[in-house]
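hi!! sorry for the late reply, been swamped w classes. u asked for the two structures so here they r. pasted raw, havent cleaned anything up. first the sequence of the first protein and right below it the tokens
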Amino acid sequence: MGIEIILLWSFALFLAFPFCAIMSHSVLEPKHGKVKTILWWGLFSSVEFVLLIINYEINISNDVLGLLIQTLLLCACANLLYKDPVENKLFISLTASLVATVFTFMCCGTTDTFLGAALGLFDPVFGPYTVSNILLFIGLKIIVFTVLVAIFTVFFKKRLKDLLAVSKGQIKNYLLAPIVATIGFQVIVYVANTAGIVPDNRLFLPLYLTVCIIFAVQYMLIFTSIKWTVTAVDATRLANTDELTGLGNKKSYIDAVLQLEEDIKAGTASFAIAMIDMNYLKKTNDGYGHDKGDKMIKLLAEHIRKAFPYCDTYRVGGDEFVVIANGKESSNMDKMISELRDLNESDKGAQPWEHVSAAVGYSVFDSGMDNNVKEVYIRADKQMYENKAAMRATR
């Protein structure tokens, strides 16, 4: 009798793994092709099934360790197979494991206990004894999880994908919720097993239905909170972003200068400022139209973004840009400006607006000489105009 029970109970938890795989794969961005991904999921599923059998062989009532095995394997598999940030993979893995394990216990409680007991097929505690009964309940579990996959696909798949798409790094602030929920469910399972709240106990269904409701409400609150947080972040970003280029706007530049002034007063300032002024914008606007001039501005902004990847970049006027390099990046200004010039030189389109030219000057803050940001700015601006004059002389 023991091996039949072990196989059936192991299969009940094992069946949750394919659901977790489907949920993870439909929401996260895969690293590999379908065949390789399926093979890896198959390998992890096989490992889980073997470990579950060993677990129940050692202690047939040890559901908590089985849940822990499933959760750890699921997180490892998601981390191996998908490109998303770690926090996204953890959030989806823990959520999938949580949903699957709750339904596993509900499934065992409803199909095995109530249906089995009503039909007189088996002992309500130790499960079915015959091969035909085992196959019947395996089939019922497959049906339950097929319905679960269908419900997820129809109602929740798009919502989860949309959540990750708009979260913009906010998921990490909510990781504690699925972690606590997963641990909490394992504690509930342990306490229920210890207290004898097995599937035939009248407290079984109320207990797990209450758990389901708590988890559902918790996730609704998470989704709502992320939505409002992202909306607030987007509003702030919009207020500080230049609409045409996506760089910081003049307002955000002024805010950055105010922060630098505070750093200077505190004696912690370490920065450099680069001034960048585009050439030929007025000529392009007058000769070809402002839409072509906008294309030039966007092209230069893209070059600035690439050349100064770890700096704060701003568009402060029509053809004027500022870069603030903080900390150790301030010592790399020559290299980054050289990269900008290389990008401008290499991007030679057929039309005048498909390549850009810009004068550049920079200055590094000197704590022994500079009392404020304006003094650094003036030196950078002067160097930029000297560069512009030199460029005019060689045309």
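now the second protein. again sequence first, tokens right under
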Amino acid sequence: MNSSDMYREIILDYWKNPRNKGIINNPTSSFKDSNPSCGDIIQVDLKINNNKIEDIKFSGDGCIISQASASMLTEFIKNKTIDEAKNISRDDILMMLGIELSGIRLKCALLCFKVFKYALYSYLGKSMEDEVYDN
């Protein structure tokens, strides 16, 4: 099995067995967005306590890439400090996925990242324009 096949297996596992899928009742912050080109819809709920992301959940529907990426990202972010979470980049997401993506699939893979950043910056009382964001 080559590395590309291995990453495809991992992506399928995250899609079939999503981590942190659901909603948080009374989240500290929440944001929802969609990718109209593919039909993906993702909502991210955050529970932040003592400068730490105590819990993170995602909900919504979409393609395998968007759902697997959301599952991977939420697993990666949980229990990080706000500063650690702010430093997560789109390259971190792409490295987790481990496969080459076309332009449209790139939007699928980064939707949860975008939604997470909006939820986090909303909590911080900042605008996304305060951060350079490349989708």
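hope this helps!! also noticed smth abt the second:
The helical segments are 3-16, 64-77, 82-86, 90-97, 103-124.
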